[in-house]
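=== How it folds ===
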Amino acid sequence: MKYTTKAAAKSTVKITIKFDGEEWKEALNKAYTKTRGRFAVNGFRKGKAPKSVIEHAYGKGVFYEDALNLLFSENYDKIITKEEKKFTVVGDPDVSVDKLEDDGVTLVAVVPVRPEVKISEYKGIKIKEYAYTVKEEEIEAELNRLLDRNARKVEVTDRAAQNGDIVNIDFVGTVDGVKFDGGEAEGFDLTLGSGQFIPGFEDQVVGMNIGDKKDVNVTFPETYQAENLKGKPAVFAVTLNKIQGKELPELTDEFVKDATGSETVEAYKAKTRERLQKQADRKSTDDTENSILEAIAEKTEVEIPQAMIDREIDGLVQKFEYQLMYQGLKLQDYLDFLKMTMADFRKNYEEQATKNVKNQLILAELIKLENVEATEEEVDAKVAEQAASVEKTAEEYKKNMDPRQFDYIRNDLVLTKLFSFLKENNEMYKED
């Protein structure tokens, strides 16, 4: 067997593998030995017919496919291992037959490989930095949500529905006079002002009284999930059955202690501020890091093979599928409801997946360029910190750690170091 490798389009490598006549003959004999039990020939017990007899009965090429598969499977991994310093395979090969004759066979495998990343600039760039601070109205909103969660529902019979009420309705939706899937329900509870329904729907229910019937006219957003409804005007025949209002508790130290465990309203507000600020700090970090990556990505050239994008799409689809499972839904049922194929659904993730892969490649290249590493002492310190948070010693904590947890800690430390370096070596600015 002889082979050659050659760089091809869009981060692929073309591997040409040549087998001489003797190798091809041996592969055919192996294929015959492996598969002869599948063939029945008159005058022979199944699996006992000679190779020449089977070829005469079924055609000369009866063993070609199996023989080609054997040749490829026995040699491909060896080639990839031998060439691993030249390129890294990131997907399955596309294999074709270039020559098939008695004196030899030539196979061609086009293999997606990790692409070359050309970063023209990653220092001295003017990059926006984000910093979020919790505002008083956010604290008040949290307090209002606490009161709302603990509100008592009361029947309302002496007034029309208003924002904040829970209304029980029947509705039938039509587009051009025709009902559509998912547009009909009876006894549906809807909180007015929640934004659960199409824009404009809830506003038109406000003001209805118990027993009222009304046609609610809305237009489906252009971004609506179901293709057949995007941008379409619709009419919902709505009947209001019942109205429930909310009676909020009084915000007192006693209520807060019962509801949250905090001793006073002020103590709860302080704890809430601390929690929200931690969330704001995480968002500040995430948005700043995304800003850095976007700036560097603009100065980066890379040809990403489709195999890497497809693999990232696989992960995004799986993540969405898990989210549906938590809601008791299946992905296929979701797609059926939207009248969408899996192929079209996957296309929705193409742009995000491409961006994700490019960012991953950029980060890996920067780590290599700057030789960023996490020392064992740093990893041990992080483990000790996590152990302390659950009141364990580092030794106790390590006993239950999966090797992947150590990898995660090490990678997290490396990325933290890298982004610190990038912040220090670029012109970071904040908007007023």
In short: Residues 152-247 form a domain with the Chitinase A; domain 3 fold (CATH 3.10.50.40). Residues 262 and 271 are 8 Å apart (CA to CA).
